[in-house]
Design a protein that fits this description.
By secondary structure, the protein is of the alpha+beta class. 32% of the residues lie in helices and 31% in strands. It has a seven-stranded mixed beta sheet, sandwiched between helices. It binds coenzyme A. The site of coenzyme A has 21 residues, from strand 4, helix 3 and helix 4.
């Protein structure tokens, strides 16, 4: 498998209008493609932009990292988040969330690049344990390939964008320097 050399991963320290536009394109495409990532159809631009504006404010407060994957033209084709802000008895833990790759950029290793970069960023921020849940079989294989431990499945946890109930599967990974 080749690593895409035209993809640049960035940890966004400021999320402005350009980034909100590109991140919204990716989120809308994933929801319209059937991904269970908090949103139902119809997936409007207003819902996507409101989500990313909230995420931008959270980044500014230092509560999370948002990483982007950009192609050679500078277009955002993927993203992932690390939620740093946790209860005071879990300072070493982070949540991995909103791993999204635009359908046009999938199956080229962008998800794998984003995941590796998110793990490095979390470790650099002092996190030694990451947790996530996913309703996607494609994502399950990605996490398992990168050493994440599958914990188990909760049936009927959420809805797919079209309203069909779906299970979620929990994973964790202990990070090492
Ligand atoms: C899950 C998701 C992020 C994966 O992103 P991706 O960029 O396609 O991931 P990768 O390219 O690293 O890996 C995907 C597949 O492509 C394969 N692949 C990677 N590079 C390749 C290459 N150069 N040539 C051929 N195949 C390749 C991988 O082996 C993997 O194969 P598999 O499906 O048989 O396991 C993406 O499918 C997605 O956004 N899904 C919708 C949103 C979602 O549900 N997210 C999960 C939320 S937790």
């Amino acid at each position: 498998m080749t690593v895409p050399d035209d993809i640049q991963i960035r940890c966004l320290d400021r999320i402005g209008d350009r980034e909100i536009d590109g991140l919204s394109d990716v989120l809308i495409d994933c929801v319209e493609g059937g991904a269970s990532v908090s949103f139902m159809l119809p997936m409007s631009r207003a819902k996507a932009e409101a989500f990313w504006r909230g995420a931008a404010a959270s980044v500014a407060r230092g509560e999370r990292f948002v990483l982007s994957a950009e192609d050679a033209s500078g277009a955002i084709v993927g993203t992932v988040q690390v939620i740093l802000h946790q209860p005071e008895n879990q300072p070493h833990r982070g949540d991995l969330a909103k791993m999204l790759v635009h359908r046009r950029a999938r199956r080229r290793g962008v998800g794998a690049l984003l995941l590796a970069a998110a793990e490095r960023s979390a470790l650099d921020a002092g996190k030694t344990l990451l947790v996530l849940d996913t309703a996607s079989a494609d994502a399950e294989r990605l996490y398992a390939r990168q050493g994440w431990q599958r914990c188990g499945e909760i049936p009927d946890y959420a809805l797919l964008p079209d309203g069909t109930p779906c299970a979620t599967t929990y994973f964790y990974k202990a990070l090492r320097g």
